[in-house]
Amino acid sequence: MQSWKQAVARAFDAAEGYDGAAAIQAEVAARLAERIAGASRAAAPRILEVGCGTGLLTAALARQRGRGILVASDIAPAMIQRCRARLTGAANLHVTVMDAERPCLAPGFDLIASSLAAQWFEDLPGTLARLSALLAPGGLMAVATLAEGTFAEWRAAHAALGLEAATPRYPALAELAGLSLPGCTLAVSGEPVIEVHADGRAFLGALRAIGAGTPGTRDILSAGALRRVLRLFEAGGARVTYEVATLLIRRREQG
User: Fold this and answer.
1) Deepest in the core among 91, 115, 183, 224, taking most CB within 10 A?
2) Read out DSSP for the chain?
3) 62 has a pLDDT exceeding 80
4) DSSP bridge pairs for 245
5) pTM, whole model, 2 decimals?
6) Is residue 202 one of the residues assigned to a domain?
7) Residue 145 or residue 218, greater confidence
8) Any idea what the CATH number is for the domain that residue 98 is in?
9) Residue 72: inside a domain, yes or no?
């Protein structure tokens, strides 16, 4: 595992207060579960969840799956334990530590689901191609991830001062819609989700609480520059937009 990804895994391992700060994550997981309920076909599906975290989506999938099997995976061992604790007593639930970019499971899944984890992939196109290869014929992969425009207000506060935010680059919807996934169809849609914070430091604290404070490749700001950015961000209402892209990937039936 590369050093940056190790840092991401450590940050999520340390996110003991995740559920208390994960309002956006819970909302996105609930919306994705609704999309899955309307699109999944198998009566007793074999399901793989990628980046299960504390189990926000896992719990919904467990309720939906009927007699099927659910495999919940995450790169962070402590997140796996939190997910297991949330779903204590759930039948046919298996949890495993796995880097989704290097899946180590046999094909044949009727459903692969992932909510707000794919934005951490270093190779999004390659990883989605590898994961979609695990689908059974007619199987569905449903992915909610972050798209261009996410944290626009935070980026704008930096840009007004001639600075660049350390948040990662997120792909445009058109870029996602153009992904090549052999043997599959792809439908992409986008929806903004707004979160308002008490102030700028509350926004940064919420990111750290959910383990999402690992910076991208740009340098971290000095204390003085950060204070100036925070003032501008707060003058705009301390609100942030999450541009949530939903990808519905369907493996074609054989023959």
Assistant:
1) 115
2) --HHHHHHHHHHHT-TTHHHH-HHHHHHHHHHHHHHHHH---SS-EEEEES-TTSHHHHHHHHH-TT-EEEEEES-HHHHHHHHHHTTT-TTEEEEE--TTS--S-S-EEEEEEES-GGG-SSHHHHHHHHHTTEEEEEEEEEEEE-TTTTHHHHHHHHTTT----SPP---HHHHHT---TTEEEEEEEEEEEEE-SSHHHHHHHHHHTT-----SSPPPPHHHHHHHHHHHHHTTSEEEEEEEEEEEEEPPP-
3) yes
4) 145, 190
5) 0.92
6) no
7) 145
8) 3.40.50.150
9) yes
pLDDT in tens, 70-79: 999 999 999 9
Instruction: Output Rg (C-alpha) for the chain, integer angstroms.
Output: 18
How many domains is the chain built from?
Answer: 1
Supply the pLDDT for residue 1: 52
Would residue 162 count as lying in a domain? no
The pLDDT value given to residue 11: 79
The per-residue pLDDT for range 96-144, each reduced to its tens digit, is: 999 999 999 999 999 999 999 999 999 999 999 999 999 999 999 999 9
Within-domain flag for 235: no
Tell the burial category of 248 from Cβ atoms under 10 Å away from its Cβ (0-12, 13-18, 19+): middle
